């Protein structure tokens, strides 16, 4: 099974989506935190911490979305009509946020407007992603080989809960990123923000985790039946260890550990979604094998992926290495 082409591609798409969530997550979190920063200088300092990498982080979104279209066209054809309003809102938020990122450094008279745009674009994109996740987890109605639901199936209390959870989570990633990248008063403020955000994140994860198994019978079986429940229990155990490391990092005023612990919390939460979904790509009934393109297409595209993905990983790692270390006031965006 693990060498089946659809399974390999499902893993690659899942990796691309996780990379986007982790890397662009702290970018969006910086925008969400804008109202809680002291003044314009501190907001611009926060923006400068992500200036060298924010646009490169969104490469993974393109790879995930484009890969889904090319490799799992049936899943793409079903998911997109179900989530069109959310996808459009996310793209508009990301576009407006990107424009604001450039313009806020090019104007004096309208800086307040573009700062608001950076915050609003970040928040809208995050809410749209969270609601799309919730809609996917609760299941998408399929009629034959097409979307069979209504225009508003994505708008539910559960999708609202996942949207709130993602807002808190991205804000936590942003706060721990500022802990890693700043000094002095900004660092102290980021630590003060990280403590309640960390508590909120754990509460949100708990709420979503408690609600998810009861959305569909198969989720309940995978998490609580024997023996599959024993394997599934590994995820919450590791999650508890990550939370402990987060607490230690904040208590000991570490610079790197809180960010790495938050990344681990996101990764383990993502693994929990995999436990609920597998072997389906689109819950409740579209499996990975059913959604995949023909093997000839998967083989052809895999050749490109073998070349492209290591290149993306290499230049991403290189850019983070070049721009490592603390960012200081006066380090401008050019």
Give the arrangement of secondary structure elements.
Elements: H1 5-32, H2 40-50, H3 54-57, H4 59-71, H5 73-103, H6 111-138, E1 142-143, E2 146-147, H7 157-181, H8 184-211, H9 217-224, H10 228-232, H11 234-251, H12 257-277, E3 280-282, E4 286-287, H13 288-291, H14 295-322
Antiparallel strand pairs: 1-2, 3-4
Average pLDDT figure: 88
Q: Which strand-content bin applies to the residues?
A: under 5%
Strand order of the largest sheet: 1-2
* Helix and strand composition category: mainly alpha
Number of separate structural domains: 1
Q: How many H/I helical runs? A: 14
List SSEs in N-to-C order: HHHHHHEEHHHHHHEEHH
- Roughly how many Å apart are the termini? 49 Å
Helix content: over 70%
Shape: globular
Unreliable stretches (pLDDT < 50, length at least 5) are: none
- Tally of DSSP β-strands: 4
Short key terms for the protein model shown above:
two-stranded antiparallel ribbon; globular; mainly alpha; 75% helix; 334 residues; 4 strands; 14 helices; single chain; two-stranded antiparallel sheet
Explain what the structure shows:
This protein is mostly helical. The chain has one domain. Helix content is 75%, strand content 3%. The strands form two sheets. Strands 1-2 form a two-stranded antiparallel ribbon. A two-stranded antiparallel ribbon has the order 3-4. The longest helix has 31 residues, at 73-103. It is globular.
């Amino acid at each position: 099974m693990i060498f089946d082409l659809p399974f390999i591609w499902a893993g690659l798409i899942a990796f691309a989506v996780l990379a986007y969530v982790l890397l662009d997550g702290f970018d969006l979190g910086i925008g969400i935190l804008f109202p809680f920063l002291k003044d314009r200088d501190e907001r611009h300092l926060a923006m400068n911490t992500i200036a060298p990498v924010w646009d490169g982080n969104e490469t993974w979104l393109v790879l995930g979305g484009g890969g889904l279209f090319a490799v799992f066209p049936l899943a793409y054809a079903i998911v997109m009509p179900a989530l069109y309003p959310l996808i459009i809102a996310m793209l508009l938020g990301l576009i407006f946020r990107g424009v604001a990122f450039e313009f806020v450094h090019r104007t004096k008279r309208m800086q307040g407007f573009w700062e608001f745009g950076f915050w609003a674009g970040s928040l809208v994109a995050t809410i749209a992603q969270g609601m799309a996740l919730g809609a996917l987890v609760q299941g998408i109605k399929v009629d034959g080989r097409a979307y069979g639901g209504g225009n508003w199936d994505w708008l539910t209390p559960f999708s609202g809960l996942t949207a709130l959870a993602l807002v808190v989570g991205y804000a936590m990633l942003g706060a721990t990123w500022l802990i890693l990248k700043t000094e002095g008063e900004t660092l102290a403020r980021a630590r003060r923000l990280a403590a309640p955000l960390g508590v909120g994140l754990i509460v949100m994860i708990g709420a979503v985790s408690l609600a998810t198994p009861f959305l569909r019978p198969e989720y309940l079986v995978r998490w609580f039946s024997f023996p599959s429940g024993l394997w599934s229990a590994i995820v919450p155990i590791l999650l508890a260890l990550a939370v402990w490391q987060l607490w230690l990092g904040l208590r000991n005023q570490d610079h790197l550990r809180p960010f790495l612990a938050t990344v681990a919390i996101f990764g383990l939460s993502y693994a929990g979604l995999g436990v609920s979904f597998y072997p389906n790509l689109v819950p409740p009934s579209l499996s990975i094998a059913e959604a995949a393109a023909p093997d000839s297409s998967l083989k052809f595209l895999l050749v490109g992926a073998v070349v492209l993905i290591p290149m993306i990983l290499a230049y991403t790692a290189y850019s983070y290495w070049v721009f490592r270390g603390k960012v200081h006031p006066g380090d401008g965006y050019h």
